Structures are given as C-alpha cells and as structure tokens.
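One record is given unchanged without comment:
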Amino acid sequence: MAQTENPLLQPFDLAPFSQVRNEHFLPAFEIIIQDAKAEIEAIADNPEPPTFENTIEAMEFSGNQLDRVSSLFFNLNSAETSDEIQQIAQEVSPLLTEFGNDVTLNPALFKRVKAVYESKDSLDLSPEQLTLLDNSYKGFSRNGANLTDEDKTNLREIDNKLSKLKLTYGENILAETNGYELHIEDEKDLAGLPDGVKEAAAQTAKAQGVEGWVFTLHFPSYGPFMKYAENRELRKKMAIAYGARAFGKNEFNNENITLEIAKLRYQRANLLGYET
C-alpha cells in the first residue's frame, strides 16, 4: 500500500474515521513507529550539549503522529471492536511496548535528560517546564534507565508479556460487557427512570427484535439505570453482573490472567528496586 493511500500517514487533527479501513492500521503503525524512533535517535545523537530545548522539549514534540494514530485505534478498539481489530491490537501492542522501552532504556538519551535535570537549578525554567523536566527524568529513572543490560533485557520481556496480557484482559471484559443484557417487559420495573433512558432502552429492544426494554452493561445504559431505577433487586442484579464480568466459568475468564499480571508487576517492581 502506497503511503499516499493511507490516511493514517497524513497529518490530521480530527480523526479521519470515514477514510480509515482496518488494513490501514498495521502498515501505518510500522511506518510511524520507525519515524518516531528516528526522531528519538536524532535527539539522543545530537552533537550539541544537552539543553531543555534540544532534549526535553524536543522529546515532548516527537512522535505526535504515533500518539494520534494510537489514540484513534485504541478508542476504536474499545468502542466498536471486532475480531479483526482485536487481532491487529495483539500485533500492535508489542510494537508500542518495544518502542516505549527503546526510549526509556536508551542510555544516550537518558544521559542527556539526566544532564539537563541535574542543571535545572541554573536554568531559567517556568513552573510548567520544570514539571515537564521532572516528569521526564522520573519517567526514565522509574522505568529502568539505571538498570544493567541484563536487567533491561528482563524488563523488556516482562513488559512485552504484560502488554499482551492486559490487552487480552480488556478484550475479555469487553466481550462480557457486550454479552449481557437485562430484558424488562413489565413497565413497573422502569419506575424512577427518566424518559430519555427508557426511550433508549426501548430502541435497543427494538433493534434486537424483542418487546419491552433492554439495558446493557455499557455505561450509557448501565449508569443511568443504577442511578435512577427504583427496583432494588434489578439494580442488584445489574451491579453483580457488572462486577463479575470476565470472572465466570467460560472462555472469557480473567482469573488466571489477573494472577499472572500481578506476578509480573511484582517482578517488575522488584527489578526496579521497589518492594511491591
């Protein structure tokens, strides 16, 4: 696919949803990640002495296209996902994790950031610039910049596993959210609900070809129901269903995934010098 044919490779402020197709995402990510890497490497290899402008500020403005496309894609994955989009996410997430580690574990880049940070008292920086500098330095130091090469390799392996597990965890939650509905046929059970909420539930029922009202665990439906419905038992039923998502005895169970994520986070914390 030619670069000019992919709308995700063009600068945009508003997401071009009408132009984007699923097959655009993976090629776009592969290209813009390489572009972002080149921007970071240019900052790290800058022969000029490190300054706030050529290091911290330059980093802040790097990777803008990657940020935009990532936001577009993962919002779409959360709001209107599909098997194809989820498969793309499984391929893209490790690439983004690897890129993040390439930045925070880059010794030349951290050396420049550290040099600016250590000279901050002599710099005439605004409160906003000082905050950005502090956050940048802590972002590196708290994510492995001071580790040995062996520990950096271990950190990359842990982060790669976590990125895949967290993605699967979220997909299971979404599947369970999509799979639940509360079908109400007795109008008495709608007591307390505003007209707009009842109308939306009636439209959902109509779209599914059933009589009455249908409420789901998606927040625009779940939130108002839990806030306004007077039927305590139905609120309890919805609350239990919401809290039990992806912890039932089915293919979307997150129990083992949750345990593995906790173990990996503990290993990561220990590797970085934290007790927990």
